[in-house]
Design goal:
Length: 621
């Protein structure tokens, strides 16, 4: 009995190794192991980011002007809708990135993609008419639709807010744990290429979202156009089928979430690659003081906040994001109002310039990082960001490119016939006050009409609803687009270099958390206030407000000349601040371990040369 006990005591019990095969639960067939590699993971997580970008930064932004008209919202209110995607991220990113660092990143990513499916419920509010009460008007007047049943337009704002909130919560792990998982499972030399693929597909999503979204706006909101309607897509009263794009997105995300959940905690061979990179001095070692418990959150955060390189790089990225997020939300509106471009052409133009500007910038940036070995050099990566941000600042002049001016609108920009004075923001006078004109859109009542006479070489002339043909100068949109491509390229060429600065200026086991903290700050002072600020700028230049059932609705007419100046000065201000912070980030950079070793080798070689010269001189004497 004692012998058996001794034998049992000497038996070495080993914990079973974690199963690193691809699959779900106990279902991990050999056939699926061909997918268990960094390439397939990068493709899968990149398509997750692609669909998210297509929806949030593509569909939502191209549809904002349509949502204004459909639900009678102000630019500030639709700016709130665009910004609400980041509220969940601000709350959750810190916790997700910290615990995800020490937990299973794959589960965070997979379940996050499942949550994003709930974002596509705003199609519930896509009916062509509001389900509100009918206004009971006195006398012989007509009736109209009100939003009284749901307390006004805030019912619809809440629906979109909830959808954006779910999307923000579901994609929180995507931009922190996603790049970290890639970086942990490939060699540092190959990491820039994989990250370039990830960010390229991420940025390709909004481009396709704008193009396909613009196409959907050519379709009437209820698919079938009412009989007798002669509205065209370029008419201010036209409402396109904005809700169709969200249907396919939710279905694709269900498939992607299943694929993501099949990956193991880490890919086979990742541990060996990581240990070799740490021996070479390419990767910093773990900070053993931080173990991943709740009590370590504060020390980890304080350690990041004491790192000047991290702080100034984060402030630079956030300053650029504030302007970028705001302008991205309203770029489609700018093109439509400033240059008179139709929604479809607007989507095609924005989608087209996003590809060379953003994807091209990321790919070229990734190539340069690899070509000049910036992945190993923190200081060189920071210097690269400074140079690129200077070109972004120089490109701010794009916002001063003149547009079409302000079209003549009777009662707003030009006086009524027989009057020498403008009526401010009023288009109603004593002569048409009894015509029951709708104040929800520009749809004037005409009197004393006659045939349009032919003039010049034109054989026929016709009148159409909507704005008159824009005045000369509208071809300037080509110069605006060209400059915008340059600006986008200079912004996104730093995508990989920025990540390199963050990943190399902190301890190895703080990298995911550092990305998370940066993302929180970037969202808090960049993505979140950006659309709200630009919405307020648009509203401040409104010359004519729509009225719906006695309430102020969406803006019907903006002063584009004033808006152009305000956007230009805002661009110079925030890109200049970003340039300053990038410079400070570079200024506080210290040499990495690899650079220090190279410097020591160079110095010792120099000392040896000087010693040999001295010996030669002594021998000659």
């Amino acid at each position: 009995m004692k012998i058996r006990e001794t034998v049992l005591c000497n038996v070495e019990v080993k914990e079973p190794d974690e199963d690193l095969r691809y699959g779900w639960g106990n279902f991990r067939p050999t056939l699926l192991q061909v997918l268990n590699n960094p390439k397939f993971f990068t493709i899968t997580v990149s398509f997750f980011s692609f669909i998210q970008g297509m929806s949030v930064n593509g569909f939502t932004n191209i549809f904002l002007l349509t949502l204004e008209r459909r639900f009678h919202l102000t630019s500030t209110e639709v700016g709130f809708i665009a910004a609400s995607n980041d509220i969940a991220g601000i709350v959750l990113t810190s916790l997700v990135s910290f615990y995800g660092t020490y937990g299973n990143k794959i589960k965070w990513l997979g379940y996050g993609s499942v949550v994003t499916v709930g974002r596509y419920e705003p199609i519930l509010g896509s009916n062509g008419f509001a389900n509100g009460e009918i206004c009971r008007m006195g006398g012989n007047a007509t009736s109209g639709f009100c939003f009284g049943q749901y307390g006004g337009e805030w019912y619809y704002i809440f629906i979109f807010f909830l959808g954006q909130l779910l999307m923000g919560a579901g994609t929180t792990p995507l931009y922190t744990l996603g790049p970290a998982y890639i970086d942990e499972n490939v060699h540092p030399k190959s990491s820039p290429v994989y990250l370039a693929v990830f960010f390229s597909l991420t940025l390709l999503g909004p481009g396709l979202g704008f193009i396909s979204g613009g196409s959907l706006l050519n379709i009437y909101i209820d698919i079938t156009r009412p009989e007798g309607s002669n509205l065209a897509p370029n008419d201010p009263q036209w409402i396109g089928a904005w809700w169709l794009g969200y249907v396919a997105g939710g279905s694709i995300l269900v498939i992607i979430s299943g694929l993501l959940l099949g990956f193991p905690r880490e890919l086979p061979g990742a541990k060996r690659i990581r240990e070799e990179a740490q021996k070479e001095g390419v990767l910093p070692k773990k900070d053993e003081k931080i173990k991943g418990s709740v009590k370590d959150i504060l020390p980890a955060t304080l350690q990041l906040l004491k790192t000047p390189v991290f702080i100034f790089n984060t402030l630079a990225v956030s300053s650029g994001s504030l302007f970028g997020a705001g302008i991205a939300s309203f770029l489609a509106k700018i093109l439509q109002l400033k240059f008179g471009i139709s929604p479809f052409i607007t989507g095609v133009v924005i989608g087209t310039i996003l590809v060379p500007g953003t994807v091209g910038g990321v790919l070229v940036g990734g190539f340069l990082v690899r070509r000049f070995d910036l992945k190993r050099s923190l200081k060189m990566a920071a210097r690269f960001c400074v140079i690129a941000s200077f070109f972004t600042l120089a490109g701010s002049g794009a916002w001063f490119v003149p547009g079409c001016g302000v079209p003549d609108l009777v009662g707003v920009t030009v006086p009524h016939k027989g009057s020498s004075a403008l009526q401010g923001s009023k288009v109603t006078l004593s002569c048409n006050v009894n015509c029951s004109c709708s104040q929800a859109s520009i749809n004037p009542t005409f009197a004393n009409c006659g045939c349009i006479s032919s003039q010049g070489n034109s054989s026929t002339r016709s009148a159409v609803k909507g704005y008159c043909t824009k005045r000369s100068g509208c071809k300037t949109y080509l110069a605006f687009i060209l400059l915008l491509v340059v600006v986008l390229f200079s912004v996104f060429i730093t995508a990989i270099a920025n990540k390199t600065v963050v990943l190399r200026c902190v301890a190895y086991n703080q990298r995911a958390y550092a990305l998370g903290v940066q993302f929180i700050i970037q969202r808090s002072i960049g993505f979140l206030p950006g659309p709200l600020m630009f919405g307020a700028i648009f509203d401040s230049t409104c010359m004519l407000w729509g009225q719906s059932c006695g309430r102020r609705g969406n803006c019907l007419f903006n002063d584009m000349e004033v808006l152009t100046d305000r956007l230009g000065y805002t661009a110079i201000g925030f890109t200049g601040i970003a340039f300053l912070f990038y410079f400070l980030s570079f200024w506080f950079c210290k040499e990495t371990i690899q650079e220090e070793e190279r410097s020591k080798h160079k110095q010792s070689f120099k000392d040896e040369e000087e010693g040999l010269k001295e010996n030669d001189a002594e021998e000659k004497h």
